[in-house]
Amino acid sequence: MTWARGRASWSGIALATLMLFAGSLIAQPRSVSQSSILGMLPFAAILAVAAAGQTLVIQQGGIDLSVPGVMSITVVIVTHLPNGDSGKLAAALLVALAVAVGAGTATGLTVSRIGVMPIVTTLGMNALLFGGVLAISGGTPRLTTPALHAFATSSVLDVPTTVLIAIGVTAAVAFVVKRTVVGRRFEAVGANAAAARAAGIAFTRYRMGAYVAAGALYWAAAVLLAGVVITPSVFQGNDYLLPAVAAVVLGGTSLVGGSGSAVASAIGALFLTQLQQLVLTTGASTAVQYLIEAAAIVAGVAVYRVRGIGPRRGEPERGGGTT
């Protein structure tokens, strides 16, 4: 995808986000007050990091339903293993990272080497991780450590640290995918694995790498989430499955693989989080919030298929296995 097309991809969702904030100012001024914005931004940043991982997977023609499991088990590990002792936090973070990356590696191997469909593989992995969540926590949440809470709720020049991390992560992912040889090959594999294989590209390596990198990104998002929420629930990651997919779809990433933009997904995350805040400010129920998120996915798919980003006529849709 050319730079001009990439810019067009995120400029559309950026304009929609600006319009949303303008509409929020008119409909519910409280939803865009300074305190509301500062309260919303950390959660938008967490969603942006998770959406970056989902973007990589979707660029390979897959979808990752293990987001809740990876994030939940990370939250449980970094809150239960230290048990309030900040001195044990570093070890807990490493254990959680190993679990998240291990889950991504297992998923990637199953999808790329064995050829099991991504939706089946990630759904099974999610169930396995939820089993781990219950085994570790017993279903009981614990307080996050003071050190992690202080870090996640800190700010630099009045900008939340979570936002700065999300910007850094998004920029890093965008740079690797768009500006490096590895990234160009990654997109080539996602667009047409058979052609990439014919060109001598080890396509299974890139497809597996998407799930490994996604696991690491879900870990990062969950660590920030555990720090922001003082007493996170043991299934805190459940709140990020649908929004992570919605952010990617709204950002214009092709659901059949290939083209995609971490920047657009991050803006989509901001759009969704502000939309949630606007809905909640009106007093609507959580059910209405879920309906709006689902509608956003449908609208995003419809828009980008009309614009021709969906499968071309005569082009078969790709599965998640080897081709």
Keywords:
single chain, 323 residues, mainly alpha, ABC transporter involved in vitamin B12 uptake, BtuC, two-stranded antiparallel ribbon, 2 strands, globular
Proportion of strand residues? under 5%
CATH architecture, by name, is: Orthogonal Bundle
* CATH homology superfamily name: ABC transporter involved in vitamin B12 uptake, BtuC
Classify the helix fraction into a percent range.
Answer: over 70%
Total DSSP E strands = 2
Biggest beta sheet attributes: 2 strands, antiparallel
Strand order of the largest sheet: 1-2
Q: Which secondary-structure class do the elements indicate? A: mainly alpha
Name of the level-1 CATH class: Mainly Alpha
Rg over alpha carbons: 19 Å
- The low-pLDDT segments are 309-323
CATH topology: ABC transporter involved in vitamin B12 uptake, BtuC
Instruction: Give the overall shape, derived from the CA principal axes.
Output: globular
Instruction: Please indicate the count of domains.
Output: 1
Oligomeric state: single chain
Count up the helices.
13
Distance between the termini: 22 Å
Could you characterize the architecture of this molecule?
The chain has 323 residues and is an all-alpha fold. It has one domain: ABC transporter involved in vitamin B12 uptake, BtuC. 72% of the residues lie in helices and 1% in strands. It is built from 13 helices and two strands. It has helices at residues 3-27, 34-59, 67-80, 89-114, 118-137, 146-152, 161-179, 181-191, 193-198, 203-228, 241-250, 262-281, 286-306, and strands spanning 155-156, 159-160. It has a two-stranded antiparallel sheet with strand order 1-2. A hairpin with a 2-residue loop joins β1 and β2 (159-160). α3 (67-80) packs across α10 (203-228) and α7 packs across α8. It is globular and about 55 Å long. It starts with a helix and ends in a 17-residue tail after the last helix. The model is unreliable at 309-323 (pLDDT under 50).
